[in-house]
Design brief:
The structure is a single chain. The protein has 235 residues and is an alpha/beta fold. The chain has a single domain, classed as ComB-like (putative 2-phosphosulfolactate phosphatase). The chain is 39% helix and 19% strand. The chain has 10 helices and 10 strands. A hairpin with a 2-residue loop joins strand 4 and strand 5. Helix 5 packs across helix 6 and helix 9 crosses helix 10. The protein is globular. Bound molecules: D-malate.
Amino acid sequence: ISSVNEASSAHFVHKTAIIIDVLRATSSIITALATGSSGVVPVETVMDARAAQKDGDLLCGERFCKKIPGFDLGNSPDEFLMNSVKDRRVILTTTNGTRAIHKSTRADYVLVAALLNASACAKAAIDLRRDVVILCAGSHDEFAIEDGLCAGLLLAKMQATCTSELTMDDFGLAMLSLYQNRSNEIKETIRSGATGKRLVKLGMGRDIDICAEVDAYSQVPRLQTNGDMLICSCY
Ligand code: MLT
C-alpha cells in the first residue's frame, strides 16, 4: 500500500494498481459507470478538462470539495445518482483522486476501487495475477482514514479469495487490522476523519452515507488508453 506522495511511477511497473479515494473521486467514478456513463475521463487540471470535452460530454469535478464554476456537476456520487449520466462521457478533475490515477499509468492494469465495489475489485485483482499496489489517494498529500479502511477491506477480501497465502507489507497489515477493528463502524470511522468532517461541515454528509455502502456495485472500472487520453470503463 502506498500514499500518493510516496508513490513514484516506478512502483507500478509489472503490477496491478488499485486506486482508492473513497471521499469521493473513486466512489463517484464507480457510481457514474454503474449508472450508465459510457466512460469517465480522469484529468488533472481544469484546463485539461475543458480541452477534453466533446459534444455530449459532462464536465465534472471539484476544488476544495465544491463544484468548479461553469462545470455541469461536482464530484459527488449523489449528483451522479440524481442526474442522468446514461450513455454520456464524464470528464472528471478532482484534487487528489484523478491525480492518483495519473500516477499509476505504468502499471500493467489500473483498477478503481472504493467501498462501493470492494468485493468485485478484490476478485478482479486476484484474477489479473499480478502483484498488487494499492494507492490511497488521501487528501492534500496526507493519508485519509477512509482510504485505509477500504484498503483493509480489499485485503480481507483478497485473503478470502486467494488460494495461496497473501503476503503484504506492514502498512497493509496495519490497514487490515484497522478494517477488522472498525468493520461494524464504517460510517462513524469515515465521519471521524478529516475529509469526512469537512464534507459534513459543507453540508455534504449524504455523500458519506452513499460512499460508506460496501459492495453496492459489481462494476470495476479499469483504466485504458485511448489515443493520448485515459479513460475508465467497465468490461
Ligand atoms: C479528491 O479527489 O480530492 C476528492 O475526491 C475530494 C472530494 O471529496 O471532492
